[in-house]
Design a protein that fits this description.
The complex is a heterotetramer of chains A (about 325), B (about 375), C (about 170) and D (about 190). Chain A has about 325 residues and is mainly α. Chain A has one domain (about 70-320). Chain A is about 70% helix and about 0% strand. In chain A, helix 2 (about 55-65) crosses helix 10 (about 230-255) and helix 3 packs antiparallel against helix 4. Chain A is globular, with a radius of gyration of 20 Å. By secondary structure, chain B is mainly α. Chain B has two domains: about 5-60, no CATH class; about 65-350, Cytochrome-c3 Hydrogenase, chain B (Orthogonal Bundle). Chain B is built from 17 helices and eight strands. Chain B has a three-stranded antiparallel β-sheet with strand order 1-2-3. In chain B, strands 6-7-8 form a three-stranded antiparallel β-sheet. Chain B has a two-stranded antiparallel sheet with strand order 4-5. Chain C has three domains: about 1-85, NADH-ubiquinone/plastoquinone oxidoreductase chain 6, subunit NuoJ (Four Helix Bundle (Hemerythrin (Met), subunit A)), CATH 1.20.120.1200; about 95-130; about 135-175. Chain C is globular, with a radius of gyration of 20 Å. The mean pLDDT of chain C is about 80. With about 190 residues, chain D is of the alpha+beta class. Chain D is built from five helices and four strands, in the order αβαβββααα. In chain D, strands 1-4-3-2 form a four-stranded mixed β-sheet. Classes of the chains: A mainly alpha (about 325), B mainly alpha (about 375), C mainly alpha (about 170), D alpha+beta (about 190). Chains B and D meet through helix 1, helix 2, helix 5, helix 10 and strand 6 of B and strand 2, strand 3 and helix 3 of D.
Amino acid sequence: MIEAIPIQLVIMLVGLAATMAFVGLNAIVLVYLERKVAGFIHRRPGPYEVGPHGILQPFADGLKLVGKQIFTPKGADSFLYWLAPMISMAPAVVCFLVIPFGPHLQIINTNVGLVLILAFTGVNVLALCIAGWTSQNKYSLLGAARGVSQSVAYEIPLLLSVLPIIFLTGTFNLFDIATNQGSWPWQWFVVTQPLAFIIFFICALAETNRAPFDLPEAESELTAGFHTEYSGMGFALFFLSEYAYMVIAACVGAILFLGGFKGPIVDGWWWFLAKVYILLLIMIWIRWTFPRVRFDQLLNICWKWLIPLAILNLLITLLVIAL
Amino acid sequence: MNLDLRLDTSGDFYAQKFQPTKREDTLILNMGPQHPSTHGVLRIILEIDGEYIVRAQPVLGYIHRMHEKMAEVMSYPQYLPNPARTDYLHALAWGWAHVGAVERLMGLEVPERAEFIRVITCELNRINSHLLWWGAYLLDLGAFTPIMYAFDDREIIMDIMQRVTGSRLTYCYYRFGGVSGDIDDRFVSETREQCARMKERFKMYKALVTENFILRKRVEEIGEISVDTCRRYGATGPVLRGSGQEYDVRRAEPYSVYDRFDFNIPAYNDCDAMGRYLVRMDEMQESIKIIEQALDALPEGDFIHPKAPKRAKPPAGDVYFAVEGARGKIGMHLVSDGGKSAYRLKLRAPGFSNLSLFGEVSQGTLISDAVSILGSLDLVIPEIDR
Amino acid sequence: MDNLASENLAWIVLFGHIAIIVAGGFITVLSESLVRALMGLILTLFGVAGLFFLMAAPFIGLMQILIYVGAVSVLIFFAIMLTNAWPGGDESGNISGKKVIFAILASIAPAVFLGSAALRTAPPSIFVPEETEVRELGRFFLEPYILPFELISLLLTVAMAGAVILVFERRKKK
Amino acid sequence: MSDQAEKSVTAPEKEEAAKTEEKVPLYTGYDLDYFVTPKDLIDAVRKLDQAGFFLEDISCLDMKEGFQLVYHFDRFDQPGRVGLRVMQDRENHDVPSIHHIYPGADWHERECFDFFGIRFKGHPNLLPLLLDPDHQGPPPLIKDESARKSLEELYPDRVTTPVNIEDEQFTREITNCSNPKYRNPS
């Protein structure tokens, strides 16, 4: 028994290190990708100066952020103020532990994987609140208030859109959900549950505060919302966690609806990564295409459209299963 | 951790003079002068209830340069570049208002070719101004991409203008009795090309942006301004035409050769931000129509009156000269005592009057809508502050 | 030997969690700033979730995080943000010795009662944790315990409706 | 008030004498141009308001006789500019604020207060608008004693008698005021 625990511990620690590296690497790739795609959509080259085709731009950005002065606003509770970015980042790392990247590439295979991800991503709101409250800035406060109402509201349709898949597969285990789907695209849940997928995707955008739902940090209204006052690494951590949550959302979407690591010919992590990045690219595409919605519109979309539709979808699914 | 911000007395002069309503559950928010959506250095003190605006008060003067005093100490030709610095987006219209006022007082005639050149360049400048407004407005609404497309078109127009005027933004092209340099065939052909290109681009803009669902939800029925509100505040330009009143100085007080062109005055009865948006989009197309007609009918002749005085010295008296700028009626009240500089030059900035109605219109709206309204007024702060 | 080591490890983990819970509790009670108090509460909730994990009930642990940390604390935070609290409330004065003693007694009392009750009528799973399937858990709630389960949800609905009505009443007064 | 009125009464007599026949027919941008007394201003503005005019701007001049405030009005549907000129004593400011008729005048009046130091009677919020609130010294557009010109020098051949706004003719004139070049946009 003594052998068993340390091995699990070792796996967990190695896994944590690996996920940290994965998060960092993804952030680097995504920063570059986001800027390049934005450039493509804007009909401009995007980053081009640092390294060939600007490939070193994310590193330059990172270096700049590390080199910036760490600044705490006057009268702020500095402990909580600096705790907030960490609270935002830490749960993201945990979530990656349960994601099955490939048939043999999963750090912890647990029966409650999906619940774990849902639980830990919810903690992010708390970070947002603390950041907004301790910044001693009215814009931050408004941003935090928006963030709370937004994520509390959108968590409901998100859960409701995930439920049909759980009913279909009868498990919370992400690995099992992935293997429940076939290798070919028409065997994926996106075919049987298109509405759930759309709702899930919209909610994922809203939960990760991505445009057109980036209201907590709407720069034309609230300057930068909850992270107005953050500089240097504090801002970098928020930035990093935003990308991390984007990746998590894309991962969950890929597993639940697109068959995870299953794919034509040979299953493997390459299919998974490809699907994740397709979803991420769609997110980036949407961000650079649409204007921002208004706050009341955002909540109306949630309460008047997404929740009833999700419930309807759930009921239909249940009816079909029962029959 | 005292966040009772109503009791905060650390604010500056204007924050202390701001009289909030007698409510206890509101917050005072200082928006600007470095806020991203106040376009430069406008500052607005807001009293908000949640995200609803109870009272809004703009604070001006952060980029005030006392252009009116400069007019009194500089000679007339020295003052020529100044009007362009007030409204850097539609610099030529301001320049025109200035030379127009002096010409009217002196009774100076402008050769026909110069009038046509003025019309062409001023309309090109108007398109440029509206394009930047379009991009910046959508930026306010959270769409980043359109401004890049707008700059694509702007660059071409600025290149065309640079060759004849010598500058890209704050043009000083008009002189008393004409313009500073003649246009050539290359200018004409490039302008024609750009007009043809713009027509295609407008179709794309319509499909990509104007018909976007989220955009429509953000601008329709937002910031409704009635004609009477416009009248009480003296709002003109697209703000007024977006309320359905067809009032355009080019038609109402025809100056130069505008009465020879066939163009419409777009007006929309919706009175909302969408109306103002559509007016500007249509106006660019009308400008292209004017430019094409002017290019077709471009007469030969002098580009400046041969007897135009080097040092203008208008006789004593006063005139008022108004032109239609991209933001509305630009007026100059020039009083001369017969000296070599103006006795008094009063600049009427359209943005000044347009902004003054913001306090009334923004009452009871959300902050997001206020940003949308502010953007739809098309503010250029240097013009307002002068 | 092996068994002993693993048992020691288990004790360490258990008391580590208990220490976290107690520390969180003290932060909650003693901090002057409401937000810090809430942070203490959240720390406690995380500790309790950890205990659920130790008892091989990860589903309950995660639900603890999802509902209490992700939703309830956030709503409490929202309430703090909206109410404008300052550190000079009714309880900010000096604390008398008598009060401290009563407070300690009051806080120990439930631990003593509940602890003794739990130890006396302990189910066998308290010593050898067994993981219960989520499916069985659901059955458990919806078959033998359906009435209390539904009653709780009814209570929550009533509470929510009451809150909404209160808010509307306040608005009407203005 | 009385001081100012005397001045404007004395002015026209000289004006009358200086009036010559070889006046150049120059369009000055004004279709109608009146001098009014500060007392009559509110009534005149109210009449313009009823006739559907909007306020373009309020200009001000520093001259020997005092300050001259020039209110410019124009109309949307039947364009034509009306100028109202009010002579204002240098020391005693008795010109009333018209912000309750034209709320847009609020800022224009504040601007005049900034640049000339004119205190409008009844203005609710007469704070510096464009200038720094800490601005020291005289208002920037006040001229030196030597640089000031008189009405006569600035407006040769101009009638500077305040108009009687109770007159039917005034009302008729402003109602029918229109730009000679104006053509219907249809």
